[in-house]
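Per reviewer request, we include the raw input and output of the structure prediction for the construct analysed in the revised manuscript.
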Amino acid sequence: MTRVMTRPETDSDVEHSSAGIANEARLVDEARRGNKSAFGELVLRYERRVLRLILQFIRDESLAEDLAQEAFVRAYQRLEQFDPSRRFGPWLFRIAVNLTLDHLRRRKRRGLWALFSETPGERSPDPAVVDPRQALDLSQEVQKVLEQLPETYRTVLVLRDLENFSTSEIAAILSRKEATVRWRLAEARSRFGQLWTKRLNAGEASPVDNDATKSDEDEAA
C-alpha cells in the first residue's frame, strides 16, 4: 500500500502548535464578532490545504478553486454554529469535504463521474523514476483503483493516506468515532490492496494472452 500511495508534505505544523491554536481561537472569536479581517487571516491559513484536499476528489483545478471558495463562504455564514471549544480546522475541512462529495453525487446522477485525480504539477516525480511519465502512469493507475472503492472507504483513505490527517482529525471531519474511522481505514486499505493486486495480475496476464492468441492465429493461417 505504502509503495503506491504516497503522502504529501504537511503544512499544518503551525496549525497544531500551541501558539497557533491560541491565535486561531482568537481569530475565530473575532470573526464571530463580525471582524472580516480576522476571517481573512483564517482563509490565508487554510486556503492551500482546503484546495489541496478538494483536488484529491476533483479533476478540474478551476472547479476545485470554486468549491474551495464556496467552502469558505459557507464557513463564514455558519460561524455562529461553530463550537468554540473545538478546533476550527476539522470543522472547516468537514464543510469542504461535504460540499465536494455533494457536488460529485450530483455529477454522478448526470453521468459525469470523476474522482481522485490531481493536477500534473500537484506532486513532484519520484527521483528514483527516470521517466516522469512512469510516475504519472502509476498515479493514474492508483486513481482508477480508488474509483472502484465505495465512497465511504474512498474518503477515509484519501484523508489519511493521501492528505495525512490524523485519525482524530478524520473523526472530527466525518463526525464519526475514532474506532469507526480506524475500522473503515483498515477495510479501505484491504480493499484497495485486493483491487490493486487484481489489476497488476490482469496487466501481467494480458501480454501472455495476446501472444497466445497471436500464435493460434498464426497456426490457423
